[in-house]
Amino acid sequence: MDDLIEQAVQIARQTGELLQSYYHRPGLQTRAKPNDSVVTDADLAADELLTKSLKAQFPEDMVLSEELNPIYQEKGNAAVWVIDPLDGSTNFSPGLHHWGVSLARLVSGKPSLAVSFFPLLEEIYTAQQSSGAWMNGQPLRVNPHVPENTATFFSCCSRTHRDYAVNIPYKTRILGSAAYSLCTVARNSAIVAFDARAKVWDFAGSWLMVSEAGGVIQTLNDSNPFPLTPYQDYSQISFPVLAAATPKIATWAKERIIPYKQKANSSNK
Q1: Poorest-pLDDT segment among 4-13, 88-97, 191-200, 223-232
Q2: Phi-psi region at 82: left, alpha or beta (left = phi > 0; alpha = psi -120 to 50)
Q3: Residues near 186 by beta carbon (within 8 Å), at least 6 away in sequence
Q4: Most buried of 107, 155, 193, 264, CB within 10 angstroms?
């Protein structure tokens, strides 16, 4: 394993250990953000540990994080770590298992390295640009014949069916973690994964995981999240992110996930 990935894995594991010390802790403070997502004391502690660890290991790199550093402060051509200290806070709070830590290092504006660690599932995903993606050290590769597999599913977020008319003829699973949901495509569990209002830290790591596993990941509205925009507050921007096993399946899915406003306008013509 590359030294850089090993360092990132170690930091992710340390953060996972910290989060487990908060898991099921009596009196854990939970608050709702303006966008209806959840933040806990564990999120803040994990963000602080991640940021401190990354700056110690990579002093020349920048950090963009969900809780403490959501504004991208550009610094020349410096690499940027995009981190989600606790992806799946709404699972973490009531004691569900699908939550984890997600790190992505952007070089020249694009994800070049990624690590996502889900402690209670004992799953760690890693990816490096042009070198592949792995789960627990085993290579990941999408199956181009996945539509013939009736055991596959459509993974999405809870907002999907509120905002979109969806006509995907596969069973739906809502896992509660954007990073994990997108990784299910890379690991050949889901044929399509969609998050209606993902933040950049939700998907920066999975963007590389899916791509390096041979899948397709893009936004539904063809917006481009990379490279990052200098001095942008990324807590205020969401992207409708779609991952699929093949380009053909991605195109097919985009035609079947229609914003309700767009559908209403079409009906009125």
Answers
A1: 88-97
A2: beta
A3: 125, 133, 135, 140, 142, 206, 209, 210, 212, 213, 215, 243
A4: 193
Residue 191, Ramachandran bin (φ over 0: left; ψ between -120 and 50: alpha; else beta): alpha
C-alpha distance from residue 98 to each of 55, 88, 90, 203 (Å): 28, 7, 9, 15
Name the CA radius of gyration of the chain, rounded. Answer: 18
- List, in sequence order, every residue forming a beta bridge with 114; answer none if it has no partner: 104, 127
**pTM tops 0.85:** yes
CA distance 50 to 86: 11
Task: Provide the 3-class DSSP secondary structure of residue 261.
Answer: helix
Report the C-alpha gap between 189 and 184 in whole angstroms: 5
pLDDT in tens, 124-134: 999 999 999 99
Tracing tokens 């992505």 back to the chain, one arrives at 104
pLDDT digit string (tens) for 34-73? 665 667 889 999 999 999 999 999 999 999 999 899 999 8
Residues 6+ apart with CB under 8 A from 151: none
Beta-carbon neighbour count of residue 232 at 10 Å? 16
